[in-house]
Write a structure and sequence with these properties.
Helices cover about 45% and strands about 20% of the residues. By secondary structure, it is α/β, with parallel strands linked by helices.
């Protein structure tokens, strides 16, 4: 004869089976969630590493390109400087502005500076301006007109910023002619010439 206890026992068995099934489902879902988390973490790490590697590669390529450009520019600088410093430079000769100030943007140039004053005051320069000995200007054989240069007197470290508006000097042993006012700033009036360093003034 069927008893209530039998019904309860069977219902208990079904409940345990249901509970075990739910536990297995929960465990499977947790495992799946863990796999998804691991996949996401791996993807993030891969993306970060890829970005770092890409940035490193770009930096290395940029550095290599800059080094190559610097080497090419130095070679260009040497050839141009040799061309305009030959003793065969004739008085009154001028040079093209096509050789740009990029040459001394790499490193300072050194040589002898002289100055010109009253004798040339008011006379036209190669650029068409009238020479004014009271302005801070200079003559250079090949730098473009308007180029601003920082001139440093290596004997006393005094410096001045001048603007190129003329061609010269045509004495092959000299590199730059500065105005009388610039010569005063450099404290070279008494000596007439001095050894200087020139570089682009920004």
């Amino acid at each position: 004869m069927w008893k209530v206890s039998d019904s309860l026992r069977i219902e208990s068995i079904f409940l345990r089976m249901r509970s075990d099934s739910l536990k297995r489902q929960v465990a499977a879902l947790k495992a799946r969630a863990k796999r998804v988390e691991d996949s996401i973490a791996a993807a993030v790490n891969l993306q970060e590493n890829g970005a770092e590697n890409e940035a490193e590669n770009e930096a290395e390529n940029l550095q290599e390109n800059e080094a190559e450009n610097a080497e090419r520019m130095k070679g260009h600088a040497g050839a141009a400087a040799a061309a305009v410093r030959k003793p065969t430079v004739k008085k009154g000769a001028t040079y093209s502005d096509s050789v740009t100030a990029d040459i001394i943007a790499i490193e300072a140039d050194t040589g002898v500076a002289s100055y010109y004053a009253e004798k040339f005051h008011g006379k036209p320069t190669s650029s068409g301006e009238k020479y004014n000995m009271h302005d801070l200007t200079c003559a250079h054989r090949w730098l473009p007109y308007g180029t601003k240069l920082r001139v440093i007197n290596l004997a006393n470290q005094r410096e001045v910023i001048v603007r190129v508006n003329d061609r010269g000097p045509f004495h092959h042993s000299r590199m730059i002619d500065v105005s009388k006012q610039a010569a005063k700033e450099l404290d070279m009036i008494r000596t007439g010439t001095t050894r200087v360093s020139i570089q682009l003034a920004h």
